[in-house]
Amino acid sequence: MTRTSLIIFFSFLVQTVFAQSPKREFRAAWIATVSNIDWPSKPGLPANQQQQEFIRRLDQLQSVGCNAVIVQVRPAADAFYESAFEPWSRYLTGKQGLPPSPYYDPLQFMINETHKRNMEFHAWFNPYRVLTDSKKNPNPPGHVSRTHPDWLISYGGKTQFDPGIPEVREYVLSIIMDVVKRYDIDAVHLDDYFYPYRIAGQEFGDAKSYARYKGNLTNKDDWRRNNVSMFILALHNQVRAVKPYVKIGISPFGVWRNASKDPEGSPTRGGQTNYDDLYADVLFWMKKGWIDYLLPQLYWEHGHRAAAFEVLLPWWERHSYGRHVYYGLGLYRMVDATSGVWSGTRELLSQIHDIRRLANNPGYSLYSSSNFDKIRVPIKDSLAKYTAYPAFPPQMKWLDSIAPQPPVLKLAKSKSGNLLEWKVPKNDDAVCFAVYKFINNEPINLERTDRIIKVQSAPALLDFNMDDVPTVKYAVTAFDRLWNESPPSNVIEISRKH
Fold this sequence. Notes:
Layout lengths: L2 H18 L5 E6 L15 H17 L4 E7 L15 H4 L12 H11 L3 E6 L3 E3 L12 H4 L4 E4 L2 E4 L4 H17 L4 E4 L16 H7 L6 H23 L4 E4 L23 H5 L3 H7 L4 E2 L2 E2 L10 H10 L5 E2 L1 E3 L16 H13 L4 E4 L12 H8 L21 E5 L5 E6 L8 E8 L12 E5 L3 E4 L7 E9 L12 E4 L3
Parallel strand pairs: 1-2, 1-13, 2-3, 3-7, 7-8, 8-9, 9-11, 10-12, 12-13
Antiparallel strand pairs: 4-6, 5-6, 14-15, 15-18, 16-17, 16-19, 19-20
Helix pairs in contact: 2-4, 6-8, 11-12
């Protein structure tokens, strides 16, 4: 191969990798706390050990390109934060109501550590789950599960609030809004648990609330869906009124409805669906603009007989209604898989590739984070190569489309390297910066994520890498908390003396 051919080949290779790694991509993982699935590793650990475990988890996720974490802060009418309304979670301290020792506020700590890494913190709430075991109530006497037994329904060995009672919805909203008001979260996140998954032969016991609150709705299914929709609308209105920049995200079951029941549904054979079994009409919420993103749980592989990934992905894209759709990917499927599509890295990477190729706003979240410790194949290495360049969450222009002002860049004296410093207007809302570096005569192209050498919140950077090239050009952009990017700063060009 001639030298010219080699140059063309490697240029093509670089551009191919660059094209596969979009600048805008939501990259997240769930951190589940219920039953200590992901964090902490067990209840009752000393505060310092809890903190170190969370830092390790964050660093691990950052190393595979994640720019957001979805952390379960209220697993079962309890709290991973200082709350005046609900007790400290036993999954944190080993006993419901017991604070961590030595004392700290885990939610504040987690938000601080996440934001240090320029990652988003999505606070994950389970709105209606109360007891994971209906026969055991570990809560103190003043807990709502003891003061309001009339709000509770036991079903399938678990106990949850009745979504059909208006006071229940108001109570849950007050819990969520307490966190929105007091903590610097980036999003409120709810998963698929509204009404519980249907159990054959068992009826959910909400006959009393239906009789009392049904109004003009004579179909119980429609009434249940309306209960959930009223909750989502109230959540939307209250979050927007208090902190308009806080996103609202829902992670529903991966099938909305089967086409056999509704021509608008997907050509799937899902055993249960959001609309018919969980009473969550997520498409209606998207159409109304009540939520900012959906994160359907597509834990099935390509070619799955009942719910194939390649069928569901384009179906959800066709039903985005101007909002974002990201995709939940089943990292857990790879654990102990010794044969089949999940025994290697190919299926997961293929799913990410399809998302990048087909999604209007690419994004995914991995369920769940602790599985990185359990998978035998080198998934962390494979994923890190796939996310080698930075990505920023897609913009939500309906929330805010005004970018910060461009920084003013200067080169300061330093014997160790190129010391860059920059300033932004005092009243500007920049929260972090991207430093771009171009060599020789490359044009300033902000889509070149392979030219970002650092994303940080500090207004200075020492670039130790003294390139053996004739010229180096630097530019810096500013991002606000909703990831609107400023125009580039003035360009600093440095010529190498020979």
